[in-house]
Amino acid sequence: MLLAGLLASCGSGSIGEPGCEGTGCAEVEDGGGFLDPGTVYDVGALLDIGPGVNNGGDGLSGKDVALPDPDAPPTDADGDGSSTPDDCNDADPAIHPGATERCDGLDNNCDGTTDEGCPANNGGNNGGTSAVGASCTSNASCGAGGGCLTGWPGGYCSVECGPAGPCPSGASCYGLQTSQGTTPLCLDDCAQRSQCRTGYACVPTEAGGACAPACGTDADCNGGACDATTGLCGAAANNGANNGANNGGTNPPAIGDLSQQQITSAGQSRSYLVYVPTGYDGSAPVPLVLAFHGSGDTASNFYPYSQLGSLAEGRGFIVAVMQGRNNDWAVHTLPASSNPDVTFSLDVVERLSAQFNVDRQRIYAIGYSNGGFFTFLLGMTQANTFAAINIQASGSPLPGQLVPNAARQLPVYILIGTNDGLLGPARDIRDRLQAAGHPVQYEELPGVGHCCYQYGKNNAIWTFLSGYAAP
Fold this sequence. Notes:
about 475 residues, alpha/beta, Rossmann fold, 3-stranded antiparallel beta sheet, 19 strands, about 20% strand
């Protein structure tokens, strides 16, 4: 969900541009190692990630850590230099004696306690000074691992989430989009404004609600009206002026803003998120990227975490983040003409091509985990539509069928962690592709498991994809 126009305007610039001014801007304290010193965070671009972090379907989350067998010989299966029984989780190299304690609900340093020194929860509700949502003047006010958003009224304690781990109980993970990209941060949960501190509103989100800076006057609302009772701009009360779902997705997505769109495909209502870069003026064709989340995940979670919106803004392409049916993708359904997700993908390509000046020779696909398996199926069966693809933490769902039947030699960039259980299938499909003459860029990431989309590789991904055009 894009909370468009909820809070303050950032001067005359667009969301994510430097030079943010006003109530909705949060400048991070300079120094202390929390986020990027001096970065300006615009709460007007708040994106709901959701209450959980482990939405990728890897089966590992929370405190589900197997206890070691006291009679078993010492092992160091994860290669972190610490052996059992001292290593309390020999399957995770980030957990071992002496490791830095992270605010993730786990005993990272194996000292028998969890999240010691981390921010508590519900600071906005109880006025504490070492809690998510609590007032602060410096990073030190927020406890170990926390940081102070000094540009928000009275300061706002938070902690990074997403790849850094889940939020403390009573807080949820959101993406704050800036000129530096999207940073996942924990915000205080709420159900009504009275549960938030003075100067804050309970902003409606898919997770329920988050305490964030309230609007003060109509000038904070980008032309809308500030509701003094709720502290929200009128656009928020009407569910967002730029949400294409409000009119069935028939209006083109807004330029320079994230838009949720709906489309009827294969007889079903489907949804997707679209970001069109601010530099788009229709005078020249631009590339299009379709992105596919992992199993159990959502488009609204995947978009901010992947930072593909920031990449699209900087590189000048349109990105559509697709929402799977039941948060999943049909990775084994052939022929492609009977696969509803292939039909959905092609329908979105056609709609966006009708709404914008899309370069039909530069349409690409990116997928993670289950979304990566589907991206491979989509690319191989629609090789004349997609110029190149990137798959992460995945391989081919049908290795013996897809590669031999591809209409052309499709360029594929494969990213896989050396600790990922799918390393074998990834290597297998690399070999099959190379044997069939497909251009392949293959990269193994040392020590990385099946954890998350590798947004740190976005520039490399775009360099690879943009180097190819469909016939």
